[in-house]
Amino acid sequence: TDIDTLFGRACRVWMDTLLDAGHDVEFIDLGTHTDAPLPSVGAADVNLLVAGIYALPRFAKYGLTRHGKHVLWMFDPLTSNEASVHRHKAGLFDALAPNLHAVMAMDSSIERYVAQHCPTLAVFYLPYLVAGKHVRAPLAEAKRNRDIIMLGGDTPRRREAEKRFLASPASGAAEFIWSGMWGAARDACRAGSRISLSIHADAEHTYFDQFRAFETWALGTAVVSDHFEGWEDFGIEPGVHMAMAAPEDMPSVCAELLADVPRREAMVQASQQLLRERFSPAAWHARMLSMIESVA
Prior knowledge:
Elements: H1 4-20, E1 46-49, H2 56-62, E2 69-74, H3 87-96, E3 102-105, H4 108-117, E4 122-125, E5 146-151, H5 156-166, E6 174-177, H6 183-191, E7 193-198, H7 210-218, E8 222-225, E9 243-244, H8 250-259, H9 261-278, H10 281-295
Parallel strand pairs: 1-2, 2-3, 3-4, 5-6, 5-7, 7-8, 8-9
Helix pairs in contact: 1-10, 2-3
């Protein structure tokens, strides 16, 4: 992985699964220096890359290790839509794809992209997973120190959403945090908030940001999300597991949720139950091992 404080838990999900099955596993943190050469690693049957988009240029520039099969667990969205702010991610992926042997796609849109643009590449479906030990008891209402947060990259669409919250003080104090918060500080921020927003970077390519949503649910905080298609595929019921609204309606939706503590608590309970039932490593254990064995 390239950012242990961001993707480390996802790596450890795989480590625990493989170790429990009797495999030898080595964890390597590549660090965040995007221009630095990759560390030297020994021979392995499979190199599982659990990394963000910033690592892909390093892989393309310095090359992957000479030993073993290379499998990328892809969290970032892929689109060929030139109007989307996500388009450059597909370009980075396309440059690396010839060196990969398989991709684990977090959703069907990534599966479709890989099948269309890289038809010789094996592709598996594997959503983001959260180990049960990371699903925390929610903080009591009196111990929460933030009303509303939004953690994500700075884009014009999100800036417009921020302006709407600033113009609607009744919706509660909303903090839009664009960068610089990782690891324990990020966890504490999410856990201490009453509501966490999930807003699409743009309207051109929309998807369920399960990485942010699942981590937020695990820390016991309610999510108010931009609309997205395919929520049924994840077992999500709008209004039960999360509130869904267009950005222009989010201030009023958040105002209602802030005033209704029992409803927020019920949403958190339902979302954490969904994590345990459908998105725990235990639920995917056999399929995870099958994926690795089919590549090796």
